[in-house]
Design brief:
The complex is a heterodimer of chains A (486) and B (120). Chain A has 486 residues and is of the alpha+beta class. Chain A has two domains: 103 residues, NADH:ubiquinone oxidoreductase Nqo5 subunit (Beta Polymerase, domain 2), CATH 3.30.460.80; 296 residues, Cytochrome-c3 Hydrogenase, chain B (Orthogonal Bundle). In chain A, 42% of the residues lie in helices and 17% in strands. Chain A contains 17 helices and 13 strands. In chain A, the strands form five sheets. In chain A, strands 1-2-3 form a three-stranded antiparallel beta sheet. A three-stranded antiparallel beta sheet of chain A has the order 6-7-8. Chain A has a three-stranded antiparallel beta sheet with strand order 11-12-13. In chain A, α7 runs antiparallel to α8. The two termini of chain A are 28 Å apart. By secondary structure, chain B is α+β, with helices and mostly antiparallel strands. Chain B has one domain: Alpha-Beta Plaits, CATH 3.30.70.3270. Chain B is built from four helices and five strands, in the order αβαββαββα. Chain B has a three-stranded antiparallel beta sheet with strand order 2-3-5. In chain B, strands 1-4 form a two-stranded antiparallel sheet. The chains are: A alpha+beta (486), B alpha+beta (120). Chains A and B meet through α5 and α8 of A and loops of B.
């Protein structure tokens, strides 16, 4: 690991996968170097699961290690903050849900009768610093997460996040369902980027099976994924307006987002959860009569985006709230291993669509948008420009749509093997690891969502800023907690 | 600014008058299921593949038939895809709110009549 980091300065951690191997627990450090994922494997005995932490080498690994510690009971020696991250505080000790021998139902039944051990920790003020807790229920955050801010007057000095309020155990649930059912399960990890989850999962399974999907299916998937990105980015830009206190922007943006939702419905059969992907292709073909409908709406949207461009460039109230607020430098972005528009807003040129093209992205010309400012405004403007790029990608894909089958038949039982895969979701790089034992049920499904990688950046962004700037700069990261908690 | 204001003044509202004007859904929308008992061969594939475990196989007049729990259903239509005889089809009916959970059970025998009521 050290050698890897010394030889390549831009290396970062993508995910840390735990794996129950019977007597030992396997740990896989998926590292990202020059657009390729390198996996470093190690094993620790189950009876004494201890390993040296890597947070001193890569600060971005903090959250990954805490998650594995929660779910597999691996102790990372020397970790700066080994508190619980995803499991609730009153979860029984020595019960690690992702181990295969964990008797969860039994332990939980016992725990329900016992009085809850967890006591709410009162907000304690340390010296001159005042503790302010944002969440789990807070008007600025639409999803339940907790952030304890230590403030000195108006200035935030320290941030302590706590996630896991909507942890649904989807990784465990995926082990108990067939591959076919898992496509619909992983799709429900996140409502907004649902197609990306499904696409990433089916691609991983296709890698294990060693099948290549037809070209038409690849183009159709690209269109669906880009529609997904369009509506996600527009949702965020509108939401950013809401947090800044600019509600007109919110209303306008969401009004213009509606045609994109309608197109998703036209193409896939539902507005939000598309359920369009399946192992071996897509589930329904594009009708020739739908092509002009999509094209006209894309043209209208393209025109409307000019208006928003002018607005973001010129509107003083919007610029005052976002420019030079929540600055994340390029060095910090690399160190904390952030992904997606957050990284690109800080000048880090990473985009899975360019680095390791999947589906039809290798054949479609488009630009990677980067900004060097690193502030909230840059992160928003990156998304705004990406909306235009997405429109162009959809137009190009419709013009160059190859004919042929849109799906192929694949066996239900997946051959033994394992694969990693990553796609560029609207919020950044989405990573999947799937291990198969040669049955219809996967042995392990690991999901690393973009927001999970971006939360450490929020700590950096908020520290040193005003309390009033916390919600807008937080929203500029486009956080999605259903994703994060899984 | 003024141009935008004037253009907005004479536009129709962006919202639709939903309960009074019925919302239209595109062809192929995944709404409430329509089950055709005559085509069903009681194989149970729909029930086996359902990711939400919303389909129960029940005995109706000596024939095993699927019973849809619409409160569990995620409307992915894997059942329709798995069905070897196309006995499950989608409809454009999406107003599924009910007061009782028991109203959300699609029983195989009464299905033909129910479907007719909704069309009216």
């Amino acid at each position: 690991m050290k050698i890897l980091l010394e030889t390549n300065k831009n290396a970062g951690i993508v995910a840390l996968t735990g794996l129950d191997l019977g007597k030992t627990i396997g740990l896989m450090y998926h590292m990202y170097t020059n657009g390729v994922i390198v996996t470093v494997r190690t094993e620790v005995p189950k009876k004494k699961p201890k390993i040296q932490t890597i947070t001193d080498l890569i600060p971005g690994a903090q959250f990954h290690e805490r998650e594995v510690a929660d779910l597999f009971g691996v102790i990372f020696e020397g970790h700066p903050n080994p508190a619980r991250l995803v499991l609730p505080d009153d979860w029984p000790d020595n019960l690690y849900p992702l181990r295969k021998d964990a008797k969860i139902d039994e332990a939980l039944a016992k725990n329900e009768t016992a009085p809850s051990k967890a006591e709410p920790t009162p907000a304690q003020n340390e010296g001159d610093l005042v503790n302010i807790i944002i969440g789990p229920q807070h008007p600025a955050l639409l999803e339940p997460e907790k952030f304890s801010l230590k403030v000195d007057g108006e200035i935030v000095k320290q941030v302590e996040p706590r996630i896991g309020y909507v942890h649904r155990g989807i990784e465990k649930a995926a082990e108990q369902r067939t591959y076919l059912q898992d496509v619909y399960l992983v799709e429900r990890i996140c409502g907004i980027c649902n197609s990306c989850h499904a696409a990433c999962f089916v691609e991983t399974v296709e890698k294990i099976l060693g099948v290549e999907v037809p070209l038409r299916a690849q183009y159709l998937r690209t269109i669906i994924l880009e529609l997904n990105r369009l509506h996600s980015h527009m949702l965020l830009l509108g939401h950013a307006g809401l947090e800044i206190g600019y509600e007109t922007l919110f209303q306008y943006m969401w009004r213009d987002r509606e045609p994109v939702m309608d197109l998703t419905e036209l193409l896939t059969g539902n507005r939000v959860i598309s359920s369009a992907m399946t192992v071996g292709g897509v589930r329904r073909d594009l009708q020739e009569t739908d092509v002009p409908k999509i094209k006209t709406r894309m043209a209208t949207l393209n025109k409307k985006m000019d208006f928003y461009h002018k607005l973001f460039e010129n509107e003083p109230s919007l610029k005052m709230r976002t420019q030079n607020v929540g600055v994340l430098s390029k060095e910090d972005a690399l160190k904390l291993c952030v992904v997606g528009p957050v990284a690109r807003g800080s000048g880090v040129a990473i985009d899975v669509r360019k680095d390791e093209p999947y589906e039809a992205y290798g054949e479609i010309p488009f630009n990677m948008i980067t900004r060097d400012e690193g502030d909230s405004w840059a992160r928003l403007i990156v998304r705004l420009d990406e909306v235009n790029e997405s429109i162009n990608i959809i137009d190009y894909a419709l013009d160059h749509m190859p004919s042929g089958p849109f799906r192929i038949k694949v066996p239900r039982v997946v051959t033994a093997g394992e694969a990693v895969n990553h796609v560029e979701a609207p919020r950044g790089e989405l990573f999947y690891y799937v291990k198969s034992q040669g049955t219809a049920y996967p042995e392990r499904v690991k999901v690393r969502t973009p927001t999970f990688a971006n939360i450490p950046a929020f700590i950096k962004i908020a520290e040193g800023g005003n309390i009033a700037d916390v919600p807008p700069s937080f929203v500029s990261l486009d956080p999605c907690f259903s994703c994060t908690d899984r | 600014m003024i141009k935008e204001l004037l253009s907005q003044l004479f536009k129709k509202p962006a919202t639709s008058k939903y309960p009074f004007v019925k919302a239209e859904v595109p062809e192929g929308f995944r709404g409430k299921q329509v089950y055709d008992a005559n085509l069903c061969i009681s194989c149970g594939l729909c029930s086996r593949d359902c990711p939400a475990k919303a389909i129960e196989m029940v005995e109706v007049d000596g024939k095993r038939s699927p019973l849809f729990h619409l409160d569990l259903c995620v409307f992915c239509y894997q059942c329709a895809e798995s069905c070897p005889r196309n006995a499950i089809k989608s409809s454009e009916f999406f107003e599924l709110a009910a007061i009782n959970k028991s109203d959300l059970v699609l029983k195989p025998e009464g299905n033909a009549q129910k479907g007719k009521c909704e069309q009216q």
